[in-house]
Write a structure and sequence with these properties.
With 512 residues, this protein is of the alpha+beta class. Helices cover 23% and strands 31% of the residues.
């Protein structure tokens, strides 16, 4: 083969490789929810979290050296201190709810009631909740209760035990439009705790009367989540959060000896005739509206919602941490190897056959050289096809799971957490303490834990039952034994969720 023909063969192969590569990567799912327009700012998302604004959060304890230096050397305006370019809020007398057992974010014990403490201003963390196409916004929900506050401080109760705002009997104390918490969120909170640049990313949105305790739609920069939205997202880590150290130190109510089950306001009243009550959530429980507190109660957490203006920003998509979830944006090694070797092998063979048919290779190449060249290309093509088949098998057909087969649904072994808290068919107003969880292993075994308190099942114990599982099409069947006897349920696989009776029962939280 002379140099001209070698160059021609190389050119054909390279052009084929480039064309097929462009075609493939043009169809790789992107990491972002929308195209990055040049005139928009991209808001970075890390593990589903956006950082925007700042607020006092982590504690500086009074027995620390840092506390003494802030107190003695810091510049301050009222209760806001500046030290080494950081800002701190001072609470002169911390106060805790009487439940007991709570801890700070770093795992340390609560300091004594009545002690003074500083709280450093830190970026507020927000869950990316959902997009509203009608308003062209992306709603963010605070990861924690960042403060405590009464729903209504201008609270007046009449002789009939009805409560209203100030001296106006026509405005019930629960009304969101006139609430103290709305005034704060759309006043001091919006104005003081976001930079001018960050304010440019935010957009006023409509808090609908149907999703609030107001009798009409109102416009807000910041709002409180409705019970219906909370209930919709309560099974995900977009809802479960807890509280900042700052909120914990302002007599935040909580239950089960953990701030993970702190009480947070929801934007709804209990009943239309009870004007003094506003609904709240306890941990992830709404419990059919039975949790409510007087509007002037100061111990419930404030956990706001804000909205990013999608005409001004793009929002980075949360990273896909599930290694086996369908539609993910990551490209596996098997897929990459399969594409490269298939293109090189097939491209080389086609080029070789074209040149051979035109008499360009014989007799300039000996038969041994021709056989060796063809064999090399066949091997490369085979490696590529095998790798692609392996990728298809593990990612699409489910052949890597017990009971899987062609046409079957995806199923990724790992931890599957219960998606709803109340016991089904329960006649009592009862909320389960903790959620149940299954661990499905790739070897076909399953373990069961009756009570999980963390949203990633990191406290899984597997002490409530064990057995085996099989997959057939979209059905997941398993049998396991508990201290109360054997159980043999069947779930329907739907993406990363397991359905029972058509309803979501469990969802994937992490790999085994």
């Amino acid at each position: 083969m002379d140099n001209a023909n070698k160059l021609r063969a190389l050119l054909f192969s390279s052009l084929g490789l480039i064309a097929m590569g462009i075609g493939f990567f043009a169809n790789v799912p992107k990491h972002y929810q929308g195209a990055h327009a040049e005139d928009k700012t991209n808001i970075e998302v890390n593990d589903g979290i956006v950082e925007l604004g700042y607020y006092p959060q982590s504690i500086v304890k009074p027995d620390s050296t840092e506390f003494s230096k802030i107190m003695s050397e810091g510049q301050h305006n009222d209760d806001i201190y500046t030290y080494n370019e950081d800002k701190y809020a001072l609470i002169e007398s911390v106060e805790y709810y009487s439940e007991g057992g709570g801890i700070y974010e770093d795992g340390s014990s609560l300091i004594e009631n009545g002690s003074a403490a500083f709280f450093i201003f830190e970026p507020i963390k927000w869950h990316v909740l959902y997009n509203d196409s009608d308003q062209n916004v992306c709603f963010l929900y605070a990861k924690y209760a960042i403060d405590t506050m009464a729903w209504q401080t201008d609270f007046t109760e009449d002789d009939n035990y009805n409560a209203h705002v100030g001296t106006n009997p026509d405005i019930p104390a629960y009304d969101w439009e006139y609430s103290t918490i709305r005034k704060y969120l759309n006043g001091d909170f919006y104005n003081k705790y976001f930079t001018d640049t960050e304010k440019g990313y935010l957009k006023k949105f409509i808090t609908k009367a149907s999703e609030s305790s107001s009798n009409k739609d109102v416009e807000d920069y910041a709002s409180i989540i409705s019970p219906s939205k909370f209930d919709e997202y309560k099974s995900s880590k977009k809802i479960k959060g807890g509280a900042s150290d700052y909120a914990k130190s302002k007599k935040l109510s909580y239950h089960w000896h953990s701030f993970e089950s702190c009480f947070i306001w929801l934007n709804n009243y209990k009943h239309s005739y009870e004007t003094k009550y506003v609904q709240y959530a306890r941990g992830t429980g709404v419990n059919d509206g039975d949790f409510s507190e007087r509007a002037n109660y100061e111990g419930n957490g404030m956990r706001p919602m804000i909205a990013l203006d999608l005409s001004k920003v793009t929002v980075g998509a949360p990273k896909d941490t599930g290694s086996g979830s369908s539609g993910g944006s990551s490209v596996s090694a098997a897929l990459i190897i399969g594409i490269i070797f298939s293109i090189l092998g097939m491209g080389g063979l086609i080029t070789f056959m074209i040149l051979w048919s035109k008499g360009k290779l014989v007799p300039k190449m000996g038969m041994k050289a021709i056989i060796a060249t063809v064999a090399t290309m066949v091997v490369a093509t085979s490696v590529g096809f095998i790798s692609l088949a392996s990728y298809t098998t593990t990612q699409v057909t489910g052949l890597n799971t017990p009971g899987g087969g062609l046409g079957g649904c995806n199923f990724q072994p790992g931890y599957y957490l219960q998606s709803t808290a109340p016991y089904e068919n329960s006649n009592a107003n009862f909320v389960q303490v903790g959620l149940s969880c299954y661990l499905f292993r790739a070897d076909g075994t399953v373990s069961y834990c009756a009570t999980i308190e963390t949203d990633d099942a990191s406290d899984f114990r597997g002490d409530s039952g064990s057995g085996t599982w099989t997959k057939s099409g979209c059905s997941l069947k398993f049998t396991y034994t508990t201290p109360m006897g054997s159980v043999a349920p069947t779930f329907t696989i739907s993406g990363t969720k397991l359905l029972y009776g058509g309803n979501e029962a469990y969802h994937f939280v992490r790999g085994e």
